[in-house]
C-alpha cells in the first residue's frame, strides 16, 4: 500500500470540492481524509499505487464545474494502515492563502426544486447547493465554513443537517444550506417601515405589476424594480433616482421574453444563461415595446436573466422588469438593511427585505460581445473576487485605482485580486465603501501590501487614500496603467504599441492626456504620439458640457463668423458663450487636453446630438448609437508634428460642419466621423510600427467601449499586427488598478 499527500490550490472551497474528493476516493477504494485549509484543499489518501494514480487523474478530469484548480502537488508519505475515508474539519487559518469563489447563479436542480410543489423547498427564495448560491457576499473570513459566513446565526434543522452531513447529497457541506424551517426569510414593508399583508413575494409581484417601485434585497445588494412596460412607473423611478438619461437595465423572466425585444446571438445567449448571468448589452429589435424611459433614444438595452431564487419566484417567463442598482445616482449600491431603508425610502414605494446579512456588496457585472467573446464593461458580481493569474510572482501590492468606475487590486505571488465595482470616488459614502472593501480584501486574502500604486492625479481620492497609509508609494501614469492592464490579463510583459484612448488622465508633464500612442511594457513607457491638444473652456465644466469645447473649436476654425453657420449648435448657443471665448483667449481656466473622449464630445455637440452630459461619456455614447449599423466614408484628418506626431481632427470637424450645411444626415456624418477617427488611429499605429518594428498592439481606455471604433481599428490592423484587447477586465477605468499593480510589481524587482 502507498500513501500520498495532495495539496490543491485554486477556487476549491465552497464549490463542492470536498464531497467530490470524498466520493472519488471511495470509488477508488482509498482510505484517508480531505479538509479545507487556508491554502485550498489538503488530502491524504492511501491505497494501491494504481488506485492512487486513478484518483489523482480523476481529480483533474472530473472536478466540479465551479472549481478552478491552479496547482496540484503530490508528496509521498509512509502508509499508516488507516481504513475509511472522511471529511475533516477545516485546518488552521495561519497560512491564509485560500481563494474565494464568486457568487454563482441558481443551478437547474435548485430551480426545479423551488418550482416543485412536492419538494420541501417549494417557493423558498434561499435555495442553494454546492453548485450554486452566494459565496463572496456572505463570507466574513476563510477557511470557508458556515461559522465564518453570515449564515452562522441560522442553525440547520435536522433535515438540512442530514443533507449537509451526507457525502452523496448535493448539499454535502454546502455552507449556505437552509430551508423554510431553519433559514432566512423575506418580509415586505412599505417605505415608512410598516409591514405588508400576505405572502411577501406574491404581494411584491402584484405591487410591481400594478405600477409600484419595489426595492428588492438580493445576493449582493438591493435592486430597484418596476414593470418595464409601465411608463408611469419607469418615469417615476427615473425622477426619484435622479437619473436623467442613462439607460436602465432590465431583467427578463426568460430568454424567450428577451428575444422578443432584442437580437440575441449564441454567444450572448450563453452569457445570459450561464453561471454568472451579467447584464449583457443587446441590440433592440423592431418588436421592442418597453416604456420610453427605460432606454431613451438608445438602440441597445442592458438585459439580464434571473440569477437568484427570489427572481425566479417573483417573475413569470413573459415578464420584463427594470432591475437597476438600489441607490441614488453616483452613490454605492445599498446592501445593509438599515441604511437601505434610509437611502431608498424616497425612491421605492415598498421594500422586499430578508434577514440574511450581506457582508460585502457586489453590483451586477456588465458585458458586451465583441468578436464572439465577452468584452467586460464592469467586472463585479459573478467574476470578483476570482483572481487574474499574472505572468510571474512578485511583491504584494495594493493598487488604488482611479476616480471613475473605481476598482482596487491586491496582489499575492502571481495572483491579482481585482475588487468588485466600487463606483465613482466623488463622495464620502463611496469613499467609505472603498476603504471598507480594501480592508476586507486584505483580511480575506491575508495580504499586507509592501507598496501602494496610485494614479498621478494629486486630487483623486484614491491617490489621497494611498498617501495617508504611510507605505511606500509608486505613482503610475494613467494611460501606462491602461496598457499594462491589457498585458497583465494576457500574461505578457514585453514592449507593445499601446493605444490608450479615454477622456482624461494626468500626464507626466502635468497636462491632461487621453489620446495616447505609447511604446510600453509593464515597467516603463515612452510617449510616441498623441492627439492634438484642444482647449477645455471652463475646465471640468467642459467635460460636463460638450458645447463648450465645440464652440471653442468653431471659433478657431471660422473666427467670430461661426455664429452664421447653419448647424444645430449655433441655433442653440447657451447664454454666456461670448464670455467663455473671452476667458479662453486670455487663458483663464482653459486647460489643454489630448483626450480622445473630448474629440467625440466636440463631434457630438457639432452634430446636435448632445450639448450637456448627464452621465459620464454620454455625448460619445450617443454619437456611437446615432451611427449604429451605418458605414460612413472617412472624413479628412491631418497629422501634425511638434515634438511628437499628433493626430489633428480640425479638418474632420470642418467636414462635419460642411456636411451639416449641405443638409447631410447627422447619423451618416456620425458614422463618417467614427470612420475618420478609426482610420487615423490605424495610420498612426502603422507609422509607429514602421518606426519601432513592434508588431503587437494593445488597445485600452474607455473610448474602446465603442464597439464600432474597436472593430474598425482591429480590422484595419489585424492582418499585419497581433491585437491585444480586454477579455477579463474592462477597458475603462475599472481595469486601471490591475495595470497599476503590474507596473508597481515590475518596478519593485
Task: Explain what the structure shows.
This protein has 749 residues and is α/β, with parallel strands linked by helices. The protein has four domains: 2-87, Alpha-Beta Plaits, CATH 3.30.70; 186-366, DHBP synthase, CATH 3.90.870.40; 368-490 and 730-747, 2-Layer Sandwich (Nucleotidyltransferase, domain 5); 534-724, ATPase, nucleotide binding domain (Nucleotidyltransferase, domain 5), CATH 3.30.420.40. The chain contains 23 helices and 30 strands. Strands 6, 7, 8, 9, 10, 11, 12, 13, 14, 15 and 16 form an eleven-stranded mixed sheet that branches. Strands 27-28-24-23-22-29-30 form a seven-stranded mixed sheet, with helices on both faces. It has a five-stranded mixed sheet with strand order 4-1-3-2-5. Helix 13 crosses helix 23 (736-747), helix 15 (547-558) packs across helix 18 (596-606) and helix 18 (596-606) crosses helix 19.
Features:
Alpha-Beta Plaits; 749 residues; Nucleotidyltransferase, domain 5; 4 domains; DHBP synthase; alpha/beta; eleven-stranded mixed β-sheet; 23 helices; globular
List low-pLDDT spans. Answer: none
Number of domains: 4
Radius of gyration: 27 Å
Q: Count of helices?
A: 23
Q: What is shown here, in short?
A:
The protein is about 30% helix and about 20% strand. The chain is α/β, with parallel strands linked by helices and about 750 residues long.
